[in-house]
Design brief:
By secondary structure, the chain is of the alpha+beta class. It has helices at about 1-20, 100-110, and strands spanning about 25-30, 35-40, 50-55, 60-65, 70-75, 85-90, 95-100.
Length: about 110
């Protein structure tokens, strides 16, 4: 009986330990590019995946791939950043996003 209670407690708690690591996305911006970084919550670098850059209306502006270092550089030339950008990263099994606000862009461009 005690064995069954212990087993039931372990199985009930399993989803919290067995949960997949989340994808952590970070994007920094300067006047010419957005640098995107992606890693898992355990610190492991996301070595492959797709990055989608969307405008404030969720219109797709550009798609590119993560490098083996879990990063990518997105040139801003020709991209309207006045309303901000959404950076989505999808590794196939995990996805997350980062919002780059117009204030982030202005602050990092010295405006």
């Amino acid at each position: 009986m005690i064995y069954r209670l212990c087993l039931a407690a372990v199985l009930a708690a399993a989803p919290s330990w067995a949960a997949a690591h989340q994808l952590v996305v970070f994007a920094s911006v300067d006047c010419s590019a957005v640098t995107v970084e992606a890693k898992f919550s355990n610190g492991r670098i996301a070595q492959q995946g797709d990055i989608r850059i969307l405008d404030a209306d969720n219109a797709l502006l550009q798609t590119l791939s993560l490098t083996e270092t879990g990063t990518a550089i997105v040139p801003l030339e020709g991209i309207d950043t006045s309303a901000g950008l959404v950076v989505e990263v999808d590794t196939g099994s995990h996805e997350n996003y980062w919002i780059v606000t117009p204030e982030d862009i202005a602050r990092n461009c010295g405006s």
